[in-house]
Amino acid sequence: MNNTEKLSINQTDGLPLFSQILPEQIVPAVTQAIKNNKALIEKTLATDIPFTWDNFINVLDEADDHLGKLWSPVSHMNAVVSNDQLREAHDACLALFAEYGTFVGQHKGLYQAYLSIAESEQFACLKTEQKKVINDALRDFKLAGIALTESKQKRYGEIKQQLALLQSQFSNNVMDATLAWSKLITDINELDGLPESAVAAAEQAAQEKQKQGYLLTLEFPSYLPVITYAKNRSLREEVYTAFSTRASDQGPNAGEFDNSDIIDEVLALRHELALLLDFSDFSEYSLATKMAETPDQVITFLTELAEKSRPQALQERDQVLAFAKQMDNLDELQAWDLSYYSEQLKQHRYAISDETLRPYFPENKAVSGLFAVVKRLFGLTIKESFDFDSWHEDVRFFHIYDQQQTHLGSFYLDLYARAHKRGGAWMNDCRVRRRLVNGELQLPVAYLTCNFTKPVGDKPALFSHDEVITLFHEFGHGLHHMLSKIESSAVSGINGVPWDAVELPSQFLENWCWEPQALALISGHVESGETLPAELLEKMLAAKNYNSALMMVRQLEFSLFDFVLHHQYKPENGSQVQSVLTDIRAKVAVITPPEFNRFQHSFSHIFAGGYAAGYYSYKWAEVLSADAFSRFEELGIFNAETGQEFLQAILEKGGSEEPMALFKDFMGREPKIDALLRHCGIE
Ligand SMILES: [Zn+2]
Q1: Which stretch of DSSP H or E encloses residue 317?
Q2: How many C-beta atoms lie closer than 10 Å to residue 602's C-beta?
Q3: Are 87 and 78 in contact (CB under 8 A)?
Q4: CA-to-CA distance for 371 and 379, rounded, in angstroms?
Q5: Which residues contact 220 (CB under 8 A, 6 or more apart)?
Q6: Residues annotated as part of the active site
Q7: How far is the CA of 604 from the centre of ligand 1 (A)?
């Protein structure tokens, strides 16, 4: 390791030097930074003068910010340009972070110092955001076991460390299982029904592996067109089977990357953790940091939505079945038939398909249209920068400015699916807005990551309407992070925003993808430049709520499964995953998946990510976002005044106040479920 290499990962003043980070630098750099932070904590605490925001909280916060900026490119690159060395270094650091988190969380001196500020006279003079930081910290200290006896604290640390490793293994198994299966098709007739773009992508995937023909994989952009369009029923069944059994004891790679034991271990450890902290189960522990208050409140909320949606979902299912019977004389819908016949019926009814729409959403139009929408809505200007270091040649970089041309923040945009990039779409923070100890303002930077179909040959990438919605969704998260006016990192941007409120801005922004005035900005035919024709839009709007109740009950099935699984967990009952799932499906689902289905084995949101006993958050936040958007429906979707109110009440405030208070500031009342059901076309 030479000196320049040593420097690159520690270069946290400017933007990360992704291209220069070497896997072997990571563990030493993180180890050193954590060591420095621990020393700083002890040094800062060893004083007789009273603790204040400036001499205590901001000083330690800056050290943590340094560590965060060092780690952010590593964890990001592990997700988007993963390789064995990087993964190994990344995973080795997880244990270090878990240990550091426990050290901080259970540091009685730190806790006492926060408590002394909370109880001092100066507390009343602090800014709202600073008070929130301190109150949240005290809450988190309690959740981190500050009140535990020494032996229980030790066990707490062990559990956290084991959980971090297990969750990472879960995620790795899903990625490995996804990569492990592929199918080479040599006879193009087998792909009958697939859109041209999907066939071309499969051909390109084969070429990249020096093969002749068409390569189908389990990456989502390959899987989705097959399950939706392939006429060949046995091909659909084969691909469905491989996809829905990833990382499990079933299917073509049964047992090879099996997450079964990991799931059981994770549940047992989470339950033990909750009990240690005096909660009766993990769902209660989860709610301690959320907008929702009790498990019953969540279960009632989900059950009510399910009861309102299920009758319509049954009707929608029966209509698909009747159509399959009429079309192909099918007597029963299998799980691998539903998407296909749903799409067929949708086309029959509305003569519209995702593929008809793709040419209207070329990448440049969709992206510049998105920027035009937020300009009209919030007065933002977005400019591309070409002077930046990157982890991949496909990545772009942008700066955001307000009406006064003040630079607010920046973001990386990484749009296309590729091998060794984790699936799905997400926004993550590269750095957070905060006031530095030297008085300067650090501006926020975000990663916006999607997995859209890559351009084929020299044609531009053409997005499906769903992909455009995904882009808006992640950008909504990005705005929440980048438009923050908060200067304390713990509640700046999306920090400190509870999971069940954090989807408000993202789902809110999706609404513009359905509005004629906005579609005029984000669509433009790849050949003619023509914006989306009114007749197509009318059909889209008619199709918008097609099978919405079916989709609703599916999301409710996932949400209830996650929540009830954690709520009802009893260690003495052994593995409860399948029985809970069966039970929930009996109440909510309208399609029973085959016995071999193991969707839960790749349900990374709850077994590898932060959505454990919190997947309901999506629906909870949909209620908030639909409700908030109803104000724009009343006053005009580009009403700049309402835009400014949303900006100031929600986006700029981040986690600095309770989400219910912010929501009421904007709406003037508590949220109602009506707008969501109306938007979904559910009676
Ligand atoms: Zn989201």
Answers
A1: helix 295-328
A2: 26
A3: yes
A4: 10
A5: 417, 423, 424, 451
A6: 474
A7: 14
What is the CA(501)–ligand 1 centre distance, in A?
10
Q: pLDDT digits over 441-499, tens only?
A: 999 999 999 999 888 888 899 999 999 999 999 999 999 999 999 999 999 999 999 98
What is the rounded distance in angstroms from the CA atom of residue 465 to the CA atom of residue 543? 12
Tokens of 169: 């293994």
SS3 180: helix
CA 501 to chain centre: 13
**Diameter of the chain by CA atoms?**
83
Please answer whether residues 653 and 520 qualify as being in contact, where contact means their C-beta atoms are separated by less than 8 angstroms: no
- The CA distance from 257 to 175, in Å, is 9
- Using DSSP, state whether 457 is helix, strand or coil: coil
Q: How far apart are the CA of 506 and the centre of ligand 1, in A?
A: 6
Residues 6+ apart with CB under 8 A from 586: none
Please name every residue paired with 414 in a beta bridge, in sequence order, or none if there are none: 449
Phi-psi region of 145 (alpha: psi -120 to 50; beta: other; left: phi over 0): left
pTM, whole model, 2 decimals? 0.81
Cβ 607 vs Cβ 167: under 8 Å: yes
The helix-helix angle for 58-80 and 84-105 (nearest 10°) equals 150
| Per-residue pLDDT reduced to its tens digit, 360-410 | 999 999 999 999 999 999 999 999 999 999 999 999 999 999 999 999 999
Round to whole Å and give the CA distance between 231 and 216: 15
* Token representation of residue 135: 């109150």
383-394 as b/e: b if 16+ CB within 10 A: eeeeebbbbeee
Cβ neighbours around 317 below 10 Å, total? 20
Torsion angle defined by CA atoms of residues 634, 638, 644 and 649, in that order, rounded to the nearest 10 degrees: 50
Closest CA to 623 of 301, 396, 349: 301
Q: Cα–Cα–Cα angle for 176, 180, 184, nearest 5°?
A: 150
Distance CA 342, CA 357 (A): 17
The answer to whether the beta carbons of residues 401 and 381 sit under 8 Å apart is: yes
For the chain, how big is the Rg over CA atoms in Å? Answer: 25
DSSP structure class, residue 545: T
Q: What is the pLDDT of residues 270-328, one digit of tens each?
A: 999 999 999 999 999 999 999 988 999 899 989 999 999 999 999 999 999 999 999 99
Q: What tokens appear for 327 in the block?
A: 């079309």
Cβ contact 23:85 at 8 Å: yes
Helix axes 260-276, 548-568, angle to 10 degrees: 60
Give the separation between CA 218 and CA 423, rounded to whole angstroms: 10
Ligand 1 centroid from CA 471, angstroms: 10
* Residues contacting residue 307 through CB under 8 Å, at least 6 positions apart: none
Alpha carbon separation from 311 to 258, 551, 582 (Å, rounded): 36, 13, 19
Closest to 589 (Cα-Cα) out of 361, 188, 245, 314: 314
Please classify residue 149 by burial: count the beta carbons closer than 10 Å to its beta carbon, then call 0-12 exposed, 13-18 middle and 19+ buried: exposed
Looking at this protein, which amino acid is placed at residue 470?
Answer: T
Q: Give 525 Cα–ligand 1 centroid separation in angstroms.
A: 28
Q: What is the 3-state secondary structure (H, E, C) of 333-361?
A: CCHHHHHHHHHHHHHHHHCCCHHHHHHHC
* Burial of 299 (C-beta count, 10 Å sphere; 0-12/13-18/19+): middle
Distance 450 CA to ligand 1 centre (A): 12
What is the Cβ-side half-sphere exposure of residue 660, based on CA atoms within 13 angstroms?
A: 8
